[in-house]
Amino acid sequence: GMLKDFAEAVRKNYYDSKLRGVDFEKRVKSEEDWIRQATHLGEALTAVAALVEPLQDSHTFFTPPDRPFRVDYGFVIQAIGQRFFVTALRPKTDAEAKLKVGDEILTMEGFVPTRRTWWSMEHIFERVDPRPRLRFEVRGTDNVARRADVFPKVTRTSAQMDFTTASDGRDIWKMIREQETAWMLRQQRSWESGDAALIWKMPEFILTEDEMDHMIGLARKHKTLILDLRGNPGGSVVMLERLVGSVMDRDVQIAKRVGRKPDLKPQEAKTRGKDAFTGKLIVLIDSRSASAAELFARVVQLEKRGVVIGDTSSGAVMEARFFFMSQGIDTKIFYGASITEADLIMADGRSLENNGVAPDEVVLPTTADLATGSDPVLSRAAELAGIKIDSAAAGKLFPIQWMPE
Questions:
Q1: pLDDT tens-digit profile of 8-32?
Q2: Chain-centre distance for alpha carbon 215
Q3: In what helix (H) or strand (E) does residue 203 lie, and over which residues does it extend?
Q4: CA distances (Å), 292 to each of 52, 189, 287, in order?
Q5: How far is it, in rounded angstroms, from Cα 39 to Cα 391?
Q6: What distance in Å separates the CA atoms of residue 260 and residue 331, rounded to the nearest whole number?
Q7: Residue 259 to residues 237, 280, 345: CA-CA distances in angstroms?
Q8: Which residues have a Cβ under 8 Å from the Cβ of 366 and sit 6 or more positions away?
């Protein structure tokens, strides 16, 4: 049933009515066969998710029902250049005992990670088919290869949530508290160096207009704004437009929208005029900068508004809508799908999807930087802003924040 719902939503809504030349009906039949042969739920859900794999579209994917447990692997892995490294480990986890920050990932569950496949691997192992163990082959900072079996922390949760009056609202309030906790991790962080520079660490494009205006107001008190979009996965289109308008002295077209409808309006940003920041702008990106973060960085380049430094971004830039789906009557199973409704074409005529944004200045941390927590990218940005922050000090400004257990 989930496969049927997902397939129908793609047929009706995917931005390219020809589905990029994929024999979609053959693909549906293939995944139906896989589901019938599946030996466990995760395998069947993986078959549903795999339906759209040939599209190679970062914003078209299946979101399975929540499972009655949460899995915390305890690590962060990301691409640096074309190689993948452990960049953070949660304290007191099996991952911390088996891996080290700076380890290069050679294989994970037998798969060699690449920039093109990594987002799909993350989605499968974190949401679709969480594993009780992940097997790694890694190369340490000593250049010695080794194997590591990492066992995640598994927290059992309720198999059902009761939203009726009989529950006295317990499950509703629990869900609200979890959402509030997640929101806390999206809070804007900043650091000031007199009136010379403001460093703004922006975790996501999920914030209110008041929060956005407050941060721009702070920036206007400084000669330089260093906007750190590393690890930023994107978010609200409205907030992207507001941010672009907050650093430009004129209205700007962000991108043309190409979809099934021939008359899609382009994505545009209106200048904030006298409320805009007019000083020097430095934007930081990395392989985990995606969607709205990439669009912003590329607009800054195309408009020659500032300098972009760091690593090539993820190349995950499409416009999508989420479709909620369910089965059942009194007791429901909820799931859904994100489906791309438009490709975004920049002013240079190119799409960022599967390409990403190449920084004006490439600055990559070394394995030694990772192991010691140093941040040469932020240190270089500070140098361009006319202030001095060494790599070790820069690495301590914005420590990683983990979701509370």
A1: 999 999 999 999 999 999 999 999 9
A2: 22
A3: none
A4: 23, 18, 14
A5: 50
A6: 36
A7: 17, 36, 11
A8: 376
Q: Is the pTM of this model over 0.90?
A: yes
Give the neighbor-by-neighbor strand order of the sheet with 145-150. 75-80, 83-89, 104-108, 134-139, 145-150
What are the C-alpha distances in Å from 84 to residues 87, 102, 235, 319?
9, 9, 24, 27
Strand 307-310 to 252-258 pairing: unpaired
Q: Are 317 and 354 in contact (CB under 8 A)?
A: no
* 135, 147 Cβ separation under 8 angstroms: yes
The set of residues, in sequence order, having a beta carbon less than 8 Å from that of 10 and lying 6+ positions away, is: 19, 24, 51, 52, 60, 337, 339
Q: Compute how many other C-beta atoms are within 10 angstroms of the C-beta atom of residue 105.
A: 22
Q: Which two tokens mark 4?
A: 């049927």
* Model confidence pLDDT, tens digit, residues 165-189: 666 667 666 666 666 666 666 789 9
CA distance 367 to 164: 53
Per-residue pLDDT of 195-227, as tens digits, reads 999 999 999 999 999 999 999 999 999 999 999
Count of positions (residues) in the chain: 405
Contact between residue 102 and residue 89 where contact means Cβ atoms under 8 Å apart:
no
Token pair in block for residue 193 = 């160096």
Residues whose CB is less than 8 angstroms from the CB of residue 81 and which lie 6 or more positions away in sequence, other chains included: 311, 364
For tokens 């691997």, what's the residue? 121
Share of the chain above pLDDT 70, in %: 94
Nearest to 83 by CA among 108, 105, 100, 58: 105
CB 346, CB 81: distance < 8 Å: no
**Which residues share a beta bridge with 115?**
none
Per-residue tokens: 374 = 């140093």
What is the rounded radius of gyration, in angstroms, for the C-alpha atoms of the chain?
22
> How far is it, in rounded angstroms, from Cα 53 to Cα 59?
11
Nearest to 391 by CA among 355, 367, 365, 354: 365
Each residue of 347-370: b (16+ CB within 10 Å) or e?
beeebbbeebbebeeebbbebebb
As a whole number of angstroms, the distance between CA 367 and CA 392 comes to 14
Q: Does the pLDDT of residue 342 top 80, yes or no? A: yes
